[in-house]
Amino acid sequence: MSFPVEERGNRNTLSYRLFFKNAKGKYISPFHDIPMYADEAQNTFHMVVEVPRWTNAKMEIATTDPMNPIKQDVKKGNLRYVANVFPHKGYIWNYGAIPQTWEDPAHKDGDTGCCGDNDPIDVCEIGTKVFSRGEVVEVKVLGILAMIDEGETDWKVIAINVEDPEAGDLNDIADVQRLKPGYLESTIDWFRRYKVPDGKPENQFAFNGEFKDKDFAIKTIKDTHRFWKALICQQRNAGGLNCKNTCVSSGDSPFCCSADEALAIVNGTSPCGTEDPIPCSVDKWFYYDKK
């Protein structure tokens, strides 16, 4: 299944957007129109890559924008880049989200005791290849981490590209611990401390920071898919989320977006232009003692 992308605006500026199409060239929402499953019989999932490994720009599916393009997060009017908290450089995995999932902010999780963060469920892909922003990858789920971010549940799925040379040897979270020693510990360290340079406290974790196994992870993904279905069927309040889609909702749904409407949305953004340089400050190291 192919999902070409189209860049709009200037890279490394507030105007930048990355829109998605299906194989027929029709604009689609990566949040709503790309199927969750890549192969339901094999329990493999689609992952939309938002941030390639080793990069710092905090790119994400714009859940409140029409057609949900990928764009860079903004804080106080400035583009957001994650800090390099020593010894980490940028994101230490390919980072993204599973489409057609939603962490419901009105649902208090029975395990974490916190409500969802109002986003698609996040994925850390731990394979060999550095993917490009906007690639849609078939991944095999290995486990999951329950981060608590400012009082909200923010699940982090650990997965690997099914075509990765190591995929055959990695089938559950215990295999990651055995074959990639230190990787899971570094993942917790990264998520715990990455907001500290911005003046925020360390993040916390449910289950005392224990990674849960593949079965637990798949159940959690399916739960967030069920929440997404309730959202797209108008059984949940969408709040500020934009649920416009071109493939899922029926014609009588307010979320149904025609091909012409989708084209108008894309044409309403800036055309692709010259890339701006990334600020030198993005490469700065941050050091502080672990608590």
Summarize this structure as a short list of keywords or feature phrases:
291 residues; alpha+beta; five-stranded mixed β-barrel; three-stranded antiparallel β-sheet; 4 helices; 17 strands
Tell me what the structure shows.
The chain is built from 4 helices and 17 strands. With 291 residues, it is of the alpha+beta class.
**Number of DSSP E strands:** 17
Q: Between the first and last Cα atoms, what is the distance in angstroms?
A: 46 Å
The coarse silhouette is: globular
The averaged pLDDT comes out at 96
Give the uncertain stretches in residue-range form. none
Order of adjacent strands in the largest pleated sheet: 5-11-13-15-14
- What helical percentage do the residues reach? 10-25%
Number of helices: 4
SSE succession: EEEEEEEEEEEEEEEHHEHHE
Largest sheet: 5 strands, mixed, barrel
Structural class: alpha+beta
Strand content: 15-25%
* Rounded Rg: 18 Å
